[in-house]
Amino acid sequence: MSGKRITRREFLKTTAVAPVAGAIGCCCTGSTSVASTPGPAAAGGTATVQSISRTSRVVLVRDSKAVLELRKFNGAVVQKMLDDAVAALFGVNDPASGWKKIVGPGDTVGIKTNSWSSLPTGKEVEEAIRRRVLEAGVPAEKLAMADWGVLKNPIFQNATVLINARPARAHYWAGMGSCLKNYIQFVPKPSEYHTDACADLAAIWSLPPVKGRTKLNILVMLTPQYHNIGPRGFSEKYLWPYGGLIVGQDVVAVDSTGYRIIQAKRLEVFGEDRPLETSAHHISLADTRHNLGRSDPKDIELIKIGWAEGVLV
Amino acid sequence: MAVPQQGILERLGRLLPQSAQGWTPGASDDLYDPETIFSYIDGAGEVYRAYNFRHLLSRRYDKKDNPEIIVDLFDMGSSADAFGVNTMDLTGEDPGIGQGGTYKDGLLSFWRDRYFVSVSAESETAAARAACLELGRRIAAAIGKDGARPALLEALPPGLAPETAVGYLHSPVILNRHYFVHAENVLNLGPDVELVLARMGERGRAGALLIVKYPTAQAASKALASFTAALLPGSANAPGAAAGTGKRGAVRLTANMFAAVLGADSDESVRIVLDRVVEQVKKGGIE
Fold first, then answer.
1. Are residues B174 and B71 in the same domain?
2. Contact present, A138 and A171 (Cβ < 8 Å)
3. How do residues B68-82 score in pLDDT, each as one tens digit?
4. In which domain, by residue range, is A118 found?
5. SS3 sequence, A263-291?
6. Res B128: pLDDT
7. Are residues B11 and B104 in the same domain?
8. Running DSSP on this structure, what letter comes out for residue B93?
9. For residue A24, is it within any domain?
10. 3 state DSSP class of A91
11. Are residues B65 and B129 in the same domain?
């Protein structure tokens, strides 16, 4: 934890502004980075370091038909969205080639989902991922999907590849429920990472159970929640049918993009730049303090696919 | 489930009704403690841990073609902490239920005795709102008696801040959520330290009064020194005398209690507020 002291003015500023961090140049060395220019296919099925790039590629895919009604999704549409996103992420024409850069027959794969009852990842997204992982040649017995209990799950313990998927929502304690936050179950005592609005969640990503294993992050923006009331923090009133998925290998860039959309939605609804109840500074700190990835939009190559109305970013 | 857990489940379960407005319990009740709460409400469980909660009973109520309603009944262990956790958010309309009840957007919250209660509808409809309020009324009745507010509140000068701008807490993280003081725990807050916070003016724009009580005089002295070094550099620290600089100030109230003002409009405002606290403490015989 940094010993830097901040003033009340700085604290309020952090709370009020978008999550963008200062420029970080080309210091990112995260093993999950995809070059902005498509690189060659990685051998052996798993894409590790493709290149050291100044920018992280993130794909935002949207479809107006993805959301049937709040929290109910069209599985076929979601599958196509995910496929399109993976193909665009890796700069290939067919999704299967993209998936082969993530997983292969020799891999053991853990899909870290989120089962929070009010707004889970969703079975449509989960099945879309599982289907493609199996089609890429991963044996069913070497594939597991879980939220709680991952530390004791033998597949996750031996995973060569992790895929991280969760919905985006305003969060009472962390500012935003993000892909970064989705790995809190990989530590025995989550409360150790809850101080200062979960500022150092990124530190989890350097722990042995996860370090260097995450090949794909999917921030589910099908019906994100842009506002929060109370610690339990759920109300359908604050969901909206955005119909999107944000997909990337740089988890910080994925979360930063999602956060920008949440902020833009709040501006649209509230008519003012109303800060989240809690600063989501864990996203920018993942960049500036932990060098896990890139949070500044100018360091993110954002590819937008599909439905453009109300895209907000 | 172990017998003691079953006993707690039954004891808390008796406070919840079997039906309200056609809503009836769905899945079986769930019981959580400070270690398991994160499996239910994620990191926000820290709020209840910061108030030393003992157990949480969660029950879901269903009614065909209507939103699910979730009742969370927290045994906070003391009425002071039930009061305190309720001060985390006092916005919303007053439904006249329990103590400090508020309702907004399908969420009813209140405290009574040693319990904090949250009743939330997954989406707000007229029927769900009526059911939430009915559930709340019946739970408040089942609890049966009001709880005492923290005695430290008596040190607060009347009229200084509206009721909705007063907080009671033990944790520096909770303090900074209400009103940012310092990134470090310069007040040495902890489970055995009580703090009353009053945000003055609209949204605390006229500053904040903090009244802090420690278990010993030694702990209070150490905390006052830490606070003064961090936020009142160069000021005197004479016990019993207001010491301040730059629209901030602090004063020792008793051996184990002091008050501080931050972010006031002027040095004069600091002095006036601290004088009122000193007077209030003398008048109230607070120790």
1. no
2. no
3. 999 999 999 999 999
4. 42-306
5. HHHHHHHHCCCCCCCCCCHHHHHHHHCCC
6. 96
7. yes
8. B
9. no
10. coil
11. yes
A165 domain-assigned: yes
List % helix, strand, coil for chain B (3-state, nearest 5).
Answer: 35, 25, 40
Average per-residue pLDDT in chain A? 85
Chain segment A291-309, per-residue pLDDT in tens:
999 999 999 999 999 999 9
Number of domains composing chain A: 1
Q: Which two tokens stand for residue B160?
A: 């200084």
d(CA A225, CA B173): 24
Distance from CA of B287 to the nearest CA of A (A): 31
Q: Cβ of A171 and B43 within 8 Å?
A: yes
Residues 6+ apart with CB under 8 A from A199: A1, A281, A282, A285, A289
Residues B130 and B238 grouped into a single domain: no
Question: In terms of pLDDT, which residue wins out, B217 or A11?
Answer: B217
Q: Which of B42, B120, B182 sits opposite A116 (nearest CB)?
A: B42
The domain tally of chain B equals: 2
Q: Alpha-carbon distance A259 to A267, whole Å?
A: 12
Give, rounded to a whole angstrom, the gap between the first and last alpha carbons of chain A: 32
3-state helix vs strand vs coil in chain A, percent to 5? 35, 20, 45
Instruction: Dump pLDDT digits (tens) for B79-112.
Output: 999 999 999 989 899 999 999 999 998 999 999 9
* Amino acid making up residue A95: P
Which positions in chain B touch A16 (Cβ < 8 Å)? none
Q: Which of the residues B36, B37, B46, B226 would you substitute to probe the A interface, choosing the one with the greatest number of A C-beta atoms within 10 Å?
A: B46
Model-level pTM?
Answer: 0.80
What per-residue confidence (pLDDT) applies to A42?
Answer: 35
Final residue belonging to a domain, choices B143, B167, B187: B143
Among the partner-chain residues B44, B184, B263, the one whose CB lies closest to the CB of A231 is B44
Which DSSP symbol is given to A43? G
Residue B236: which pLDDT band, with cuts at 50, 70 and 90? low
Q: What is the pLDDT of residue B9?
A: 93
Residue from B33, B37, B40, B41 whose CB has the most chain A CBs within 10 Å, to mutate: B41
Of the three residues B88, B123, B143, the one that is the final residue of a domain is: B143
CATH number of the domain enclosing A266: 3.40.50
Q: Could you count the other beta carbons within 10 Å of the beta carbon of residue A33?
A: 25
**E strand or H helix at A41, and its extent?**
none
Q: How open is the CA angle A165-A196-B53, to the nearest 5 degrees?
A: 90
pLDDT band at residue A237, thresholds of 50, 70 and 90?
A: confident
Tell me which residue range forms the domain holding B191.
151-284
State how far the Cα of B117 lies from the Cα of B115, in Å rounded to an integer: 6
Instruction: Name chain A contacts of B263, Cβ cutoff 8 Å.
Output: 8
User: A235 and B120 in contact by Cβ < 8 A?
Assistant: yes
- DSSP class of residue A186 equals G
Evaluate whether residue A19 is within a structural domain: no
Q: How many CB pairs (< 8 A) connect A and B?
A: 85
- Are A75 and A124 in contact by the 8 Å Cβ rule? The answer is yes
Answer yes or no: do A237 and B43 touch at CB < 8 A: no
Pairing of strands A214-225, A300-306: unpaired
